[in-house]
Design the sequence.
């Protein structure tokens, strides 16, 4: 399972303030905490706090000074993405994200190749978010095929079928599960498959229960990555249990602790 | 989701004692408690406490005097099964269980037809428990085809791919998940699919976590029934959350309580 820590995002007030005041302390603190909890990537996102590419570069550099974890450069703005990639020290990382927009793909795929990073593609097109399984599969397949043609390995491509809030678009969760199953048969080896997990529990009362339940169902369908709260111990325990059931972890009575230990806790 | 309450089983000491002493109190108490928690069936099993068919008849009658819930007559012994069915008052129920043994099928299918009850078939054959997906599917398909030929409706057939303890046969959990997916495409409408859930957590330290995680993954693959501990509130909350994600329950912030209320709590 590829864990992408969601916390260095200007959607959180402490990070928004850190960016505005160029205060590295909260960024370093979340980088350390998430790395210690076993994040494989740290997502960094300047959100609405800034439109300046140099702020993304600052975030990337601040994280790099603190931990050795790979970085997910998260922006829909091409200049901001490029500034984040330029600031990288060669440790590897990913672009989060492209859509199935041909213009975006034409610019982002060469960047991913040039910087030797992975590319996360969300199954969105010019019509917006997909309303069904078919559009998710079409858009995912289009991103995958274009990225492979452009020189990326299947292992460098991560597809995201776009999770919606269960509270407001309940029927989409099932569609996402089905799309995950379809993505696994796009190629052999299959692309990685990720979701932005927190979306599904947006405004819901039973947040933790919904997050854990959806995530293990999705892992059962073939999901192997997630942007999520790696600090959520119950969520991490659910993930390792799902991996155990799929025979990817070795059983011991203390398998939850063994997983944490291997993840560096 | 079809919930089959596991508790009236002589594997539990209070039930073994109740059977030996013909004391209806523990049987009635567990019948009431499980019915109140929303069990669709109450499994009754005299286990090793008795080899007398009349003890099964006594268990069935004792439960019937207490609640209106359907009964799952659980024995590998044909005379004991028949005694349970004869004691039934026509409310419906199931035979738990047959295997893919042609002789068993030849005797149990006509009994299920005669008493108009469902038949649960475990994917076991004369070679014992299945070691892989293929044997599970072969045995399940054989039971299904024979039962349909014998006059049962697909809706009266419940297939069980046989869950093994994760601690001792870790690789089988994944095989069970795959077999569940295969069972769903045996026919349209598909047979029901059940597991004896507690098996997977046998002797494991993280029992609750393993039970909940496996069950929601299995529901994602098409499982729609389980013999389980219906008194386990966390397990029931996980089930309703999985049903919500699959768009079979309607979202409300209080969906866990709404589910309990509809189940009669």
Sequence:
């Amino acid at each position: 399972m590829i864990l992408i820590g969601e916390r260095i995002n200007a959607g959180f007030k402490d990070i928004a303030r850190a960016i505005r005041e160029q205060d590295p302390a909260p960024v370093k603190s979340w980088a350390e905490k998430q790395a210690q909890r076993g994040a494989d990537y740290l997502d960094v996102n300047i959100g609405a706090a800034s439109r300046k590419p140099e702020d993304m570069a600052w975030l990337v550099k601040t994280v790099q000074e603190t931990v050795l974890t790979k970085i997910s450069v998260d922006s829909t703005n091409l200049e901001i993405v490029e500034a984040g990639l330029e600031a990288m020290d060669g440790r590897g990382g990913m672009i989060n994200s492209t859509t199935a927009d041909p213009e975006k793909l034409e610019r982002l795929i060469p960047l991913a190749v040039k910087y030797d990073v992975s590319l996360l593609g969300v199954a969105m097109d010019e019509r917006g978010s997909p309303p069904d399984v078919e559009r998710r599969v079409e858009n995912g397949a289009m991103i995958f095929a274009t990225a492979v043609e452009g020189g990326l390995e299947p292992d460098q491509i991560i597809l995201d079928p776009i999770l919606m809030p269960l509270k407001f678009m309940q029927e989409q969760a099932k569609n996402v599960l089905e799309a995950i199953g379809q993505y696994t048969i796009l190629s052999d080896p299959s692309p990685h498959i990720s979701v932005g997990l927190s979306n599904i529990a947006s405004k819901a009362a039973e947040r933790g229960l919904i997050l854990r339940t959806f995530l293990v169902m999705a892992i059962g369908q073939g999901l192997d990555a997630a942007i999520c709260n790696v600090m959520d111990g119950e969520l991490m325990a659910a993930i390792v249990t799902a991996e155990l059931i799929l025979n990817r972890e070795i059983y011991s009575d203390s398998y939850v602790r063994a997983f944490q230990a291997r993840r560096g806790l």
About this structure: Chain A is about 45% helix and 15% strand.
